[in-house]
Amino acid sequence: MTAHRTSMIAHKPELLGQTVVLIGGSAGIGLEAARRARAEGAEVILVARRAQPLEQAARDVGALGKAAFDANDSTALAGFFRSLREPIDHVFVTGPGPSYKPLLEMEIAEVRHALSDHIALALEVARNAAPKMRPPGTLLFMGGTSGRRIDRGLGIVSAATNSMPSFVAALARELAPLRVNLIAAGFVDTPLSASLLGDQLQARREELSRTLPIGRVVGPGDVAALALHVMSNSALTAATFDIDGGQQLVA
User: Fold this and answer.
1) How far apart are alpha carbons 171 and 238 in whole angstroms?
2) Domain range for residue 98?
3) To the nearest whole percent, how much of the chain has pLDDT over 70?
């Protein structure tokens, strides 16, 4: 009886037999998502710009494959997906954070880059990944929540942030039955945040720990857990999932 009951409640890996490509998979959210995907039975393929940390990350998680290139290089991106011999199930794209600068201090080229960077990358990933993907897998992109408010210090970030949910929904209609989703994060305590904030990092951590409803900062594991849920739940598409610990309530 006990053995039977135990077998009934035993955890079945959510992504068993599936393959996940993580673009930005050598550190932070991408690497944590790779670890969790492996724990749920998936094979993972890591993509990152820098070869050395990518090599270490791939060893750490037992990656099926790895590729070092700049995902914003359309030729390299297309070549990577063409090189995949077996079908894949999910693609999770993390990447550099936004650049904050007052609007009137921006050059026109910077404006064009800020408005098109995330959408252009997402479109190129979708165009090249979709033919290799098995439904009901998902293309999963990262956006933000802080840019939803209008503030001088945010500059063009608000426009760029608010364009992504509509883009993802439109792309989901075109690619169905493949799924397309967006994770919108607030501050996440990652190496990228450390590089952006420098010596202000600890003060920001302390401020958010005091003011966020959850009483702590959001970490890479929180976002990775959400990403794995979106991958495994085949009813989710064309959706934006906020994860900021309530930061929008107190900003």
Assistant:
1) 8
2) 13-250
3) 88
- pLDDT value of residue 1: 46
Average pLDDT of the residues in 180-202: 91
Give domain status of residue 5, yes or no. no
Residue 3 included in any domain: no
Pick from 2-6, 110-114, 198-202: least confident: 2-6
| Closest to 95 measured CA to CA, from 62, 117, 126 | 117
Instruction: Please classify residue 148 by burial: count the beta carbons closer than 10 Å to its beta carbon, then call 0-12 exposed, 13-18 middle and 19+ buried.
Output: middle
- We report the CATH number of the domain holding residue 23 as 3.40.50.720
The pTM of this model reads 0.90
For helices 108-129 and 74-83, angle between their N-to-C axes, nearest 10 degrees: 10
Query: Following DSSP, what letter does each residue of 217-235 receive, concatenated?
Result: -B-HHHHHHHHHHHHH-TT
Residues linked to residue 133 through DSSP beta bridges, in sequence order: 88
- 3-state class of 183 per DSSP? strand
Sign of the CA dihedral running 25, 29, 34, 37: negative
Q: Of 142, 169, 145, whose CA–CA distance to 157 is shortest?
A: 145
For residues 87 and 129, the answer to whether their CB atoms sit within 8 Å is no
What are 50's two structure tokens?
Answer: 């820098």
Burial of 54 (0-12, 13-18, 19+ CB in 10 A): buried
CA 62 to chain CA centroid, Å, is 20
Q: Are 22 and 48 in contact (CB under 8 A)?
A: no
Instruction: Write out pLDDT tens, residues 38-78.
Output: 999 999 999 999 999 999 999 999 999 999 999 999 999 99
